[in-house]
Each structure stands twice: as structure tokens, then as C-alpha cells.
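Task card 7
Instruction: Convert sequence to C-alpha cells.
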Amino acid sequence: MDSLLNLLDPTWWLTLFGAFATIGVLVIIFAETGLLLGFFLPGDSLLVAAGIFSSASVAAGMGIEPLSFPMLLIGAPLCAIAGAQLGHFLGARFGRRLFDKPDSRLFKREHVLRAEEFFDKFGPAKAVVLARFVPIIRTFMNPVAGVLEMPAKRFLLWNVIGGVVWVEGMLLLGHYLGDKVDPKAIDKYILPGVFLIVLISLIPIIFEVLKRRRSPKPAGPAPTGKHHRVPTGTDGP
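Output:
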């Protein structure tokens, strides 16, 4: 149990990487968004923590080298975008076979179904952007978009928008908090603070769900239970 909690704790990862913490953050962000088995890695919390520990006073209080904030601002969104693009490519290349495996401790078919439902509910463009703020769905959305034949160029456009907004927003917020919090008490605030940030990041999703529930549903034929293919035309964001 302790080892599992460590995997979810961003401060554990940053301490583990030590002087190479900045590089470690970039690697984890790529894996968390591009590799199916990366869904258990910290995403939002790691970015916020990385922003916090880019403050020299905070890093000194934790006994680690401060992370390079300029490198994070440039490298982290690139890794997030590249990872998601890889996931889309794998989904488009291998199709359903990518998910044709039994449930295990590291893979649950329900994660794929949740991503598909998310894709259906919001449409391709909004789903790719909003999924950035939802753990687990963030990882599975990219290959699902490939499996459902979302065009690669169109995916890239919304992937870039979502990746930049998500990464830069989390890093800037963490960096701001790092300058405001007492370095001697940082360990008391970081986990509750990160949890609060994750909750705040879900606000756009909640807003979209409420908006769609209030909108009148058009009459149409009864659902057949079969999953549709993604339209190649424009459906708006």
C-alpha cells in the first residue's frame, strides 16, 4: 500500500529524481499522456508540485535542487502533446486490438469505456481538450480518438490547445503558490493544495455536463447500442 501511495505522491517522484527532477517530470508527463500503462502516474499533481519546487526557497526546504522553470514551461507542453499524439497514432494503427487484452492490475477495460463515453458526450474537439483535466481519461482518450478515426491533423490542433492550456496553467499556478507559501511548512500544504487544484480543474467538465443536461434533446431514432464512428466533417469545438 505504501508503494502505491508513493507512486501517486508527486513529492516522492521529485525527491527520487533528485538533481534530474526536471527531466523526470518531462518523462512522466510524456508517459502519462502517451502510454496506456502510464495512467497511474501523477499528472496534474506533478505539474503543480513541479511549479512549486521551481522556487529555490521551497526546493531548499525539501532538500532538493530547484527545478528549471523555463525548461518546464517549454518542455512539459511539448512532452504532453507528443505523448498524446503517440497515443492517437497507436489507436489509429492498431484499432481495437490495442485494447484486446484481459483486465489486470494495470489495465481495466472500464477505463476505455469511460473514455469512449466521454468522447461521445462532448464530441471529438471538446473531448480532447477537456480530457486533459480528468485523470485516467486523459491517458485513454488519445488512443480512443485514434480508434474512432478522428483525423490526425484535427486531433493535433485540439491536442496542442488542450496540452498547452493544461500544462502551462498547472505549472504557473504551482510556481505562484511556491512564492507565497512558507518553505518551512510546504510539506503541510502541498498535498491538500494539489487536491484542491485537481478539484478546480474539474470545473470545466462539470459546467459542460450541466450545460448539456439543460439543453433540449432533439428527437431521433431509438439508440441501437452500437458505437458510432467519428465524423470527418466539422462538428464544432
